[in-house]
Amino acid sequence: MSVTRVLQQAKALSPSERKELLRLLQEIVAVDNGKKPKRSLRELRGLGKEIWQGIDAQEYIDEMRAEWKERDR
Q1: CA angle 49, 52, 57 (to 5 degrees)
Q2: pTM above 0.85, yes or no
Q3: Which candidate, 9, 41, 50, 69, has a CA 20 to 30 Å from the CA of 23?
């Protein structure tokens, strides 16, 4: 596959897909140069979500606030 063909395919991508492609290419180049690729906070999205399944957010917050009030007494 030629660089010209890859470039033509990249032009067909949406702007957000192009940004993602650029980020991934930068990681490849960094690894090739012996550097660790920079990590993105976006990679953490959804991490641990199974822990919170079935828990009502407002109830949880209310419980935490009640515990804090008990500690402050």
Answers
A1: 125
A2: no
A3: 50
Distance of CA 60 to the CA centre of its chain: 25
Start-to-end CA span in the chain (Å): 70
Q: Please, what sign has the CA dihedral across residues 10, 14, 43, 41?
A: positive
- Tens digits of per-residue pLDDT, 16-54? 999 999 988 888 888 777 777 677 888 889 899 899 999
CA angle 48, 50, 52 (to 5 degrees): 90
Residue 37 to residue 31: CA distance in whole angstroms = 6
Per-residue pLDDT at 15? 93
